[in-house]
Amino acid sequence: MKLVTAIIKPHKVDDVKDALKAAGLHGMTVDEVKGFGRQGGKTEIYRGAEYVVDLLPKVKIETVVPDDIADQVADIIVNAARTGKIGDGKVWISPVEKIIRIRTGELGDEAV
Amino acid sequence: MIASEINTGDTAWMLISTGLVLFMTPGLAFFYGGMVRAKNVLGMLMQNFFAMGLMAIIWVTIAFSLAFGNFGDGGFIGNLDFAWMRNITATTGNEAFALSIPFVLFCAYQMTFAVITPALITGATADRFKFKAYGIFIALWLVLVYAPVAHWVFGGGWLAKLGALDFAGGAVVHINAGAAALAVIIVLGKRKGWPREGMHPHNLPFTLLGTGILWFGWFGFNAGSALGANGIAATALMNTFLAASAGMLGWLLFERIKDGKPTTLGAASGAVAGLVAITPCAGFVGGMAPIIIGFLAGVLCVLAIQLKFKFGYDDSLDVIGVHLVGGLIGALLLGFFADAAVNPLVEHEGLFMGGDAKLLWFQFVASVVTMVFSFVVSFIIAKAIDKTIGMRVTEEEENEGLDYSQHAETAYSFGSTGSMDRI
């Protein structure tokens, strides 16, 4: 089992979700997060006082998948989330030791 | 102000105006509440709402009498003729005051001014004023600062006799509250982390909603100050509208040129700056004057709010930059635009209306005296409270926010995780 984690632009969530669904993926978890990478921050102005907002809103997607399709899932996310502009985010894959479906107690691939 | 017979039209308008001005205080609460951080929004709303409670009671027990007793004496303070609601009824008083409305309504109308004026200060002191100290401060302030200044100007006191004009409270309300705000924040000190830390508004929609309510209520504030349903009230209403509009445009134009983008907070601030500046002028000017006054206020106030960064005082929501400076602009510009054709009460016309510099001098004296008196007495009250019970919340309470530390509440709780169990 692998955990595929992606940090993407918030407005790309639906594209990624639709692409994963179309590929037959069964589930994902989405979180609204903040962070910074090479994009840096942005500037907001309130009554003439400028504020640098260096932590920008992003969306984190997590999904656990069988080993053999992890690369494919990552590719789907990369393609769906890409705008070509700075700040598109990252995807990484990490190993998962164990997974249990709470309702049935199923383990491993059956639980994904 | 000539007839002492009660007029139903005048009375109807003043009943409505009283409601309009009262509504400005919740409007102000939301105007300010949107600008503070989420952990302090209830603290801000509470300070404003609390003024509607405490100021009203103090007004009828003593402050109204100190402001309006000895009406027209040319002096410094009223008397106790109307203390404890004595002689304040629907049938007493209106003859002595030459009112065409019931005297009790006059008292109620003025009460709404006594509510909002101390509430204006809360914008400067945001996020750090201990609630108990705030309550004591505004109680003393209403009696020791507001009542005398109101007597000088509205109660026929020495500034009114001198010849200074203030239609609806440029000096009594805005310069007065602005100077007090400066004194209080000097005693209170800066918010922790200011100016390095970003303390940007948590809910600008609230601020715009509050601005709309203020603009709406200001028709009662200014047109109501005619104390009747007449031509001067109508002129004041038109002037109020135009100054707010021009103030908004002035602020936005400046922002667009300097910062690149016209902001919603700028639109709200500009409208309020225009409203503040037209307040002393509303029933004394006409024609294009309100547009010039409002526009200048919009541009000069956006410049004035930068001063706090230069001088290092934390006027959190720009009460000094908007109300003190806006009030001064209005009070002084009246010396240029006052027009006897608009209102026969104008004895000395403004410089641009063919008059001499007399009125401008009176306006200058009234503004400076109000500013100095308010600053000094407010400073003494604030210092005295600070030495005894302390003006400021503790550092821990400040970090936690006023909502929880002062009122044991939280403004926003979303979602179901971590819900509360009753104990």
Shape of chain B, please? globular
Task: Write down the domain tally of chain A.
Answer: 1
Total DSSP E strands of chain B: 0
Unreliable parts of chain A: none
- CATH C-level name of chain A: Alpha Beta
Largest interface: A-B, 10 and 18 residues
Distance between the amino and carboxyl termini of chain B: 60 Å
Radius of gyration of chain B: 21 Å
> Given the helix and strand composition of chain B, which structural class is it?
mainly alpha
Q: Strand-and-helix sequence of chain B, N→C?
A: HHHHHHHHHHHHHHH
Q: How many strands, what sense, and barrel or not for the largest sheet of chain A?
A: 4 strands, antiparallel
List how many beta strands of chain A DSSP finds.
6
The number of domains of chain B: 1
Describe the structure.
The complex is a heterodimer of chains A (112) and B (423). Chain A is 20% helix and 37% strand. Chain A contains two helices and six strands. In chain A, the strands form two sheets. A four-stranded antiparallel sheet of chain A has the order 2-5-1-6, with helices on one face. Chain A has a two-stranded antiparallel sheet with strand order 3-4. In chain A, a hairpin with a 2-residue loop joins strand 3 and strand 4 (49-53). Chain A is elongated. In chain A, 18% of the residues are buried. The model of chain A has no long low-confidence stretch (mean pLDDT 93). With 423 residues, chain B is mainly α. Chain B has one domain: Ammonium transporter fold (Orthogonal Bundle). In chain B, 63% of the residues lie in helices and 0% in strands. Chain B has 15 helices and no strands. Chain B has helices at residues 8-33, 41-68, 103-120, 131-153, 158-162, 170-188, 204-223, 231-258, 264-278, 289-304, 307-311, 319-337, 358-388, 395-400, 402-407. In chain B, helix 1 (8-33) packs parallel to helix 3 (103-120), helix 6 (170-188) packs antiparallel against helix 12 and helix 12 (319-337) runs antiparallel to helix 13 (358-388). Chain A binds chain B through residues 44-53, and chain B through 195, 198, 200-201, 255, 258-261, 263, 265-266, 269, 302, 305-306, 309, 318.
